[in-house]
Amino acid sequence: MLSLTVLSNCMNTLDDIPQGESWATRFRVTTFVRDGVPVRASLLQPGQAHPGVPQVYEGLGIIRTRDTASQMLLVIDSEHHLEFRVSYADCWAWEPIEWIENE
Predict the structure, then answer these.
(1) pTM as predicted
(2) Where residue 6 falls among pLDDT bands split at 50, 70, 90?
(3) Residue 29: which of 2, 62, 66, 54 has the closest Cα?
(4) Quick check: is 44 in a domain?
């Protein structure tokens, strides 16, 4: 199992993040949320309601992929392990991370 350790508290632009390094960011996204937790539905049937209600969710996530041309990121929420497509404008507090192997 791997854990995430924040190395420093520095702010960067999307272009300043070196390729091949792991970084985390705070982010906000509109998604379905139930009791403060983002939820995903699978295999909904026609007419079946999606669980939760749409609202703004904020989290800390690991940047999986970035597209500097479109200024979009794929971020994996570190608490709930869900992937979100997030605009660079909805991210802040960029921080390099180090992966530590737990035994």
Answers:
(1) 0.80
(2) very low
(3) 54
(4) no
C-beta atoms surrounding 30 within 10 Å: 11
The Cα 1–Cα 95 span in angstroms is: 21
The three-state secondary structure class of 100 is strand
Beta bridge partners of 17: none
d(CA 79, CA 3): 11
- Measured at the CA of 25, the angle between CA 19 and CA 28, to 5 degrees, comes to 130
19 vs 62, more confident: 62
The answer to whether residue 43 sits within a structural domain is: no
* Overall number of domains in the chain: 1
Q: Map tokens 């190395």 to a residue.
A: 7
